[in-house]
Specification:
The structure is a homotetramer.
Chain A (H helix, E strand, L loop, with lengths): L7 H16 L4 E3 L5 H10 L7 E5 L16 E4 L6 H7 L4 E4 L4 H12 L4 E4 L3 H9 L6 E4 L2 H16 L1
Parallel strand pairs in A: 1-2, 2-3, 4-5, 5-6
Helix pairs in contact in A: 1-2, 1-6, 3-4
Chain lengths: 163, 163, 163, 163
């Protein structure tokens, strides 16, 4: 998850993360739009042969062919607008907020905590880090500085759960 | 789309249709539950190597591991209950109602017409055939007696659209 | 519930029903749009002093001031498009489909049966009457020829439940 | 909006705010549950004769009669779970986050900024104040220390819009 208006650094991080996720053989799920962190993560994943990218979109369809990232393999058109943020979170095993993001990303991070999904903040601004770690939740908030650290965090948690 | 309580004949039709859809290299999207037409279509598709099945579920997660068809590759947990029927329809290029179904299937067929999605009724009861062809809609309702006829209808329409 | 494109007879029925519902002191809930059966029912209700009308809309807001029936007291903007049909049904104690309606009304009638809400078909076309009474459901489908008959059906059921 | 687990101070603030909103003749809309800030605000509003309270609930119905605040006049059962937070925000002219709240309240404050709704933070913790005022948004974030200040902020903005 991340901003549709992303900095160059956030785009770079999202591409790296998408490629690493795909490299693990995991499915990448994003908000699917042709913008910012969403598109960058999908584009990163599609550099890996055999990758699978799912885009869960707010719209009821891609009417003019420009709304969906071309790096999305399967587009889920929800037609429920911003309420689709909940679908993104519930359908993910791990939620990663990449960079600062805007209010949309903030709502997804909050919904991850609300619904008990493991949340990783990747290179968050101080304000976001301090806020989300201050909220009461049944799941811990993990912090990562690099895309590789996100992968390591997920693997460590998965190993702990499997034990 | 089809009933969670399906007759043996409906289950057979759904399996055949799932296999044929996968054989064309198309993605199969269903309501994803481990029941009736949904599971049968997914199971049919998974007999085909390289197939991809998407399940769009009403629930917020598969808490006890029994709710999702094991033949679903990617589960989208919407958490929006019956409102997920709209997501199913909007995310499909063609909507096929397999057999009689119950009120849930009826709502999906109606939503297909409401949102302008091509609708195929496969072996419908007379009451359903007469009702859905009586509704005003911007899209025609096609009728099929066999799974192969559904595939033929979709191919004919796609060819017409591509021209 | 009913069509946004309604016949003169359906508009008349909806106005009468809205007025009768309000006259009983009941809250009228519709899809809230400024069209057809929805507006007519709200307008009928607002002829009764002290009436309360709720409109549950598909849109995220009334951007140009023309989308919401002016006879709606409280507008609920869901922003979830056609998925709001489920909200209408779940928030109603009784669901009345007024006249023929189109695919949207058909989806609401089907969702009423799916979610176990008492459904009354008021002056339905033959095709709708035959179809909805053919579906398996935990609730019976009642038929009414006049707005007053709808009220009588609801009162009879309420009395039976209270016993 | 506010936490279902609220402090005594937050409950007091919510009651005061509910009473003041109702005293202005405004409609109070909350998440409708029988808990914390939601119930307190509704209870405060219902001390005012002629008040109207709307509860927009995540559930598909009040199955055991304990889920809905008894101070809610009209319950909207969305059946869409946490996605109903979007409905709350879109249906409100002003969004007030009362006290700290948890992740659910955080998602609603974020969604208010995302959808361009005026947001007032009433007695927020420092972390929330700093975070939400750091997010890019088309609408300003207002801060209030008392329930009366919330009312004053809304009136000032309404007057500015009417000019």
């Amino acid at each position: 998850m991340g901003g549709s208006n992303a900095t160059a650094g956030e785009v770079q991080l999202a591409q790296e993360l998408g490629a690493l996720i795909a490299g693990e053989g995991w499915v990448l799920l994003t908000g699917g739009r042709n913008a910012g962190v969403m598109h960058a993560a999908n584009a990163g994943a599609k550099t890996v042969p055999g990758s699978l990218t799912i885009g869960v979109l707010p719209s009821a369809g891609d009417l003019d062919g420009t709304g969906v990232s071309p790096a999305v393999d399967v587009a889920i058109f929800t037609g429920i607008g911003e309420a689709r943020n909940v679908v993104n979170v519930l359908s993910s095993d791990f939620v990663v907020a990449c960079g600062g993001g805007g209010p949309g990303t903030a709502s997804e991070a909050a919904l991850a905590l609300k619904t008990g999904k493991p949340l990783v903040l990747l290179a968050p601004p101080d304000e976001a880090r301090i806020f989300f770690t201050s909220l009461e939740s049944s799941v811990p908030v993990a912090l990562a500085a690099t895309a590789q650290e996100v992968i390591d965090i997920i693997k460590t948690r998965n190993a702990a759960c499997a034990r």
